[in-house]
Each structure stands twice: as C-alpha cells, then as structure tokens.
Amino acid sequence: MVKNNGNQLELTDFSVETEVFRRDVIAGLSADRKTLPSKYLYDKRGSELFDAICEAKDYYPTRTEVGIMRRNAAEMADAIGAGAVVIEYGSGSSMKTPLLLEPLEKPAAYVPVDISREHLVEAAERISARFQDLPIMPVCADFTRPFELPEALDSDAPRMAYFPGSTIGNFTPTQARSLLQNMYDETNGGSALLGVDLKKDVAVLERAYDDSEGVTAEFNINLLEHINRELNADFDLETFEHRAVFNEELSRVEMHLVSRVRQVVTIGGTSFSFDAGETIHTENSHKYTPTSFARLAASAGWKVDRIWTDDRDYFSIQLLVADR
C-alpha cells in the first residue's frame, strides 16, 4: 500500500523476480555478441541517473518534448476526450505527466506502470499530492510484456496509453510492434499518445547519448553495479567504458559497454570471458521519420491521427487511434 497525506494508493505489484533477472543476464552474456536487456538499466539508481540525463545540456529529447507539450497539451487533451483512463508505460518519475493531466477533462484514473518499484511509489505519491481527486493506481511490472490492470478500473471508461520520451525507440521494430499490439489490447483499441524521436544529424544524436557531463556513461555502467548487487557478480566497473555510436543501416543509436582489458567475470558461479575491446550491447534508440513510424504503427493496428513537432523537427508526439 502506498500512502500520501493519509490517502492510500493501491499498488499492483508484478516486480521482476531475481531468478528472471539472472536468467536474462546469463542468456544475454552467453550469446555470440554479448547483450543485456535495457530494462535492467532502470533500478532505483539507474532511474535517478536517467532523470539526470534528461537535464544534461547535450540531451535534447526531454527539453524538446516538454516544449511541444507546453504548446500543444490543450489540443492533445481535446483530441483524447473526457473521462479517459491514462495508462503510462515506463512512467519513471512521471515528470511530464502533469502537462497532460492538467488539461484533460475529468480523467477517470491514472495508472503509472514501471519496473522500478521504489521510483514508481515515489512518483505516484507526488502525482497524488498534486491531483488529489484523481484515482492513482500504480502497477509495478515489466511493461514490455502483457500485464494485468487494476481490477478497480472503470471497465466502461475509454483507455489511453501514454508513452512519452523516446522509449519506443529502445525496441527493435519487431519488439516495438509487439509492444504497440499490447497497448492496443490493454486499451481495448482506445488511443495512444507516444513520443517518437526523429532522424537528424548524427553528431547531434551521438552527443545526446554520450554527453559531455558523463551522466549517460554513469547510467550505462550502473547496469553492471545492478548485476553485482543483485546477482552476486564481480564486474570490475573500472575495466569497462561507455560507448555510443549511430548505426546508419538500422537507424539507431547503440549503447555499449566496452571491456578495456582481457578478463573473466563471474555471476553466481557462471563465468564469462571478455577480450579487450569486446562489448556488451546494452541499449538501442531507434530514430524514425513520420512515414516509417506510421508504417510501424499500422502493423500493430493503429493509425496516426495527429503529429505535433518542434520547430527543428527534432522530436514528435504522435496520437494513435485504432485502425481495425
């Protein structure tokens, strides 16, 4: 139970079990090209570091998206309509959420969904304090998989998936299609409001994911600390460094952790060898054109109803509605 000023918020908890975490890590590091699921970047410390990334001067997406929201939130709210249940995927600290909730007409409930339980609880309490008449129903879950919504939700209220930031870009097109299909099912074919980062100059992209302040590097390295803490591993953080590069063929920024030396790492009795220069692929951030994202959305049953962008066309917020 989450408490705020004497009020109680019912937390639905589907936290990722340690054994699932262990299985995913071992499977990823056993592959020919080592990889780790990006969702594990977001433990409590990782979530805090991501908030700091959003404030970094080289990281344009958050500032740009907030500007779009401030200019167009009323129009977005009109398009969404009255009485909606807002389901926010990967809600994190819910920093942008008030910009949407403020102009919405009589929203029925707000359901933040996040894998980091502590971060989710803190954000739910802040939102509850600001919107005291709005039912807040946090769900701790891996939103990349289907999850159950709180039973207390009004089954007749229209549902809208809210997915701000550029997180849809963290998924391969196949994974993104699956997530969009899940959103379609979980909203009963309602609507979705998504942040979609757009293609732009490579230098701008690479600076955003390897910022001069080093916050993204710390965020990436923290994944190894998360594994050390939870899975009894012995990663030496000093022997890995962060790298971000743009893959033109796949239209995505790739984040890697690069082993500085030849070494062996043990995770709960399982050993993994690294050559000097070998990498662990930790995250992707795909960049779209309006046409390429519309094609992706259509493959999951959605059509793009409206698009809002900034003056430079760096970023977009797109409203999707059912197309089947």
List the helices and strands and how they pair.
Elements (H helix, E strand, L loop, with lengths): L1 E3 L2 E3 L2 E2 L4 H13 L13 H12 L4 H21 L4 E5 L7 H5 L7 E6 L2 H14 L8 E2 L18 E5 L9 H14 L4 E7 L4 H7 L6 H17 L8 E8 L4 E8 L3 E5 L2 E5 L4 E8 L3 H10 L2 E8 L5 E8 L2
Parallel strand pairs: 3-6, 4-5, 4-7, 5-6, 7-8
Antiparallel strand pairs: 1-2, 8-15, 9-10, 10-13, 11-12, 14-15
Helix pairs in contact: 2-8
- Give the helix tally: 9
The total strand number stands at 15
- Overall pLDDT: 93
The general outline is: globular
- Largest sheet, strands/sense/barrel: 8 strands, mixed
Name the helicity range: 25-40%
Strand content: 25-35%
Strand order of the largest sheet: 3-6-5-4-7-8-15-14
Radius of gyration: 20 Å
What is the N-to-C succession of helices and strands?
A: EEEHHHEHEHEEHEHHEEEEEHEE
Counting helices, strands and paired strands, the structural category is alpha/beta
Terminal Cα span: 38 Å
What ranges have pLDDT less than 50 throughout 5 or more consecutive residues? 1-7
